[in-house]
Write a structure and sequence with these properties.
single chain, about 55% helix, Rossmann fold, 7 helices, 5-stranded parallel beta sheet, about 10% strand
């Protein structure tokens, strides 16, 4: 029987969790990072769609944002128990306190931080963003950013500004930061 203190901390499980706004590049960067590090890539939104058999906009239509957030929290809760994964989380994952705790305790959390302007450029033509299907999507995006940015910062071990660099460059830069982070921690 293991005593709880002798268990290796789950933070050393090799898990990397990407947080950030919709359009920050979590999926693109996550796939490249997983490839580079020999880890398994998982996208929490895709996982939700697989489990429910319907699209995310459909879940929003039927169950509203609250119903979606519950499903999301339950998926996050399961996924963080895996090892050696790169997980791209949904933009609103951090709104749930249990999910924030689960991410912090089970891996290294990286905040891909973009400006509202860049996020707007990347998301404005995307019909798969139920929260932006409003009369004034830019203002909605800006208010979501203001609400979520402090939460992303709170859970993050590393903050990576995405800026104008390519996803490939971002991944190289991120690998350097992760190496530095592991050296400090070990």
């Amino acid at each position: 029987m293991h005593h709880i203190n002798t268990m290796p901390p789950k933070r050393l499980s090799g898990n990397i969790f990407l947080v950030g706004m919709m359009g920050a590049g979590k999926t693109t960067v996550g796939k490249l990072l997983a490839q580079a590090l020999g880890k398994i890539f998982i996208d929490s939104d895709e996982e939700i769609q697989q489990r429910t058999g319907v699209t995310i906009p459909h879940i929003f239509d039927v169950e509203g944002e609250a119903g979606f957030r519950q499903r999301e929290a339950s998926v996050i809760h399961d996924l963080v128990l895996l090892d050696n994964i790169v997980l791209a989380t949904g933009g609103g994952t951090v709104l749930n306190e249990q999910s924030r705790i689960a991410l912090c305790c089970n891996g290294i959390v990286v905040y891909l931080k973009s400006t509202v302007h860049d996020l707007w450029q990347r998301t404005r033509h995307d019909r798969n963003r139920p929260l932006l299907q409003t009369a004034d999507p830019y203002t909605k995006l800006k208010s979501m950013y203001e609400q979520r940015d402090p939460l992303y910062a709170q859970v993050a071990n590393l903050v990576m500004p995405t800026g104008k660099q390519s996803a490939q460059n971002l991944v190289l830069h991120l690998q350097e930061e992760l190496n530095r982070f592991s050296e400090i921690k070990s």
